[in-house]
Amino acid sequence: MGANIKVTEGSVEGYAPSGLHGATIHMQIPSVTGTMDLMMAACLASGVTYIYNSAREPEVTDLAHCLISMGAMIQEGVGPGPITIFGCDKPLLPYRYKVMEDRIEAEAFLILGAMAGNPLTVHGCTPKYQTALIEKLRAVGAQIDIRKYSIIVRKAICPVAVDIQTGPYPAYPSDLQPQFMTLLSVVRGTSRITEAVFENRFNQSGGLIAMGADICVDGEDAVISGVRELSGSMVAATDLRVGASLVIAAIVVKGITVISSAQHIDRGYYGLQRKLEKIGVTVTRSLGFDEGAGKVDSRVAVPALCSRV
Questions:
Q1: Which range among 56-70, 204-218, 279-293 shows the weakest confidence by mean pLDDT?
Q2: 58 vs 97, 180, 237, CA distance in Å?
Q3: DSSP assignment, residue 71?
Q4: Which terminal residue of the chain, N or C, has fewer Cβ atoms less than 10 Å from its own Cβ?
Q5: Number of H helices, E strands in the chain
Q6: d(C-alpha 289, C-alpha 295), whole Å
Q7: pLDDT, tens digit, for every residue of 106-147?
Q8: Sheet-wide strand order for 234-236
Q9: Angstrom distance (rounded) from CA 291 to CA 286
């Protein structure tokens, strides 16, 4: 597209002295962020841009609708077809647009609901986007009640092991793999997770093992042998998805779990403490020596009535 990219330690600098121009781009992997960046750049590039092997996540479609509302000309391909963007020679227009819900956050609460003692209702979600997770939760034994814009999940009486393999949408999302590992840690039997999207995506295993989980990681595979229960421990949220998996574990285990580096969780789960307190979980935040820390008191039970998030 005509850009010059300079990568230095800690920064990436991009230059387009003559402006950007349309191009035919074949993505090596269907990256969501990569697809979105290319779409936005192509909107104001001269000429037409074709993006092949693009991500098909609902968030990509939502961004396309937003850009179109601002004056961009975008055609989404069907099946293997490319996303086609016709560059504009004038700035996009201001527009008030409501972005879609955070699909991964909603699904994290669904996993929590499959482990908690009382029914959990997640409002403001679009069930058709949660199909892959719902199938796996039902396979574990959880009861799922689907409404138009909400989902009610009830804990499985005798949860059983299942296998999952991550992949691009509509396959099971890699961003939800760490949270599902928490659930599989306490089901009956042995489960296998195959991570087919990202490398080194099992960082949550160390924290779960510290809490009593039986997990063996070998490359892109993780084998989880379910245990009766987990226990509170000192663990670290090395990234936001790891943090979410540890928060879920902390809520259902015995004892108090202290999660350090909690600022990573805040980056991807807005107002999480307020939402957890709404369903009866006590969360105490404190500042460590050089980083935030969140304390989750898992001894507080979820209210007997159907909880709402």
A1: 279-293
A2: 16, 21, 27
A3: T
A4: N
A5: 9, 18
A6: 15
A7: 999 999 999 988 999 999 999 999 999 999 999 999 999 999
A8: 234-236, 256-260, 292-297, 282-287
A9: 9
- CB-CB contact of 109 with 271 (8 Å): no
Q: Is the pLDDT of residue 308 over 80?
A: no
Residue 14, pLDDT score: 92
Span between the terminal Cα atoms of the chain, in Å: 44
Query: In terms of DSSP bridges, do strands 24-26 and 120-123 run parallel, antiparallel, or are they unpaired?
Result: unpaired
Phi first, then psi: give them for residue 262, nearest 5 degrees. Answer: -70, -15
Q: At what angle do helices 58-69 and 32-43 cross, to 10 degrees?
A: 10
Tokens of 25: 């781009």
Query: What was the pLDDT predicted at 261?
Result: 85
Q: What pTM was estimated for this model as a whole?
A: 0.90
pLDDT band at 183 (very low <50, low <70, confident <90, very high): very high
**Backbone phi, then psi, for 244, in 5-degree steps?**
-65, -40
How high does pLDDT run on average in the chain? Answer: 91
The reported pLDDT for the residue numbered 280 is 87
Cross-strand partners of 153: 120, 144
The phi, psi pair for 44, rounded to 5°, reads -110, 10
**CB-CB contact of 201 with 177 (8 Å):** yes
- What single DSSP character describes residue 94? P
Q: CA–CA separation, 172 vs 130, rounded Å?
A: 9
**If you search the block for the tokens 């039902």, which residue do you land on?**
138
Q: Is the bond leading into 170 cis (omega within 30 degrees of zero)?
A: yes
**b/e for 153-173, b at 16 or more Cβ within 10 A?**
bbbbeebebbebebbbbeebb
The C-alpha atoms of residue 199 and residue 166 are separated, in whole angstroms, by 12
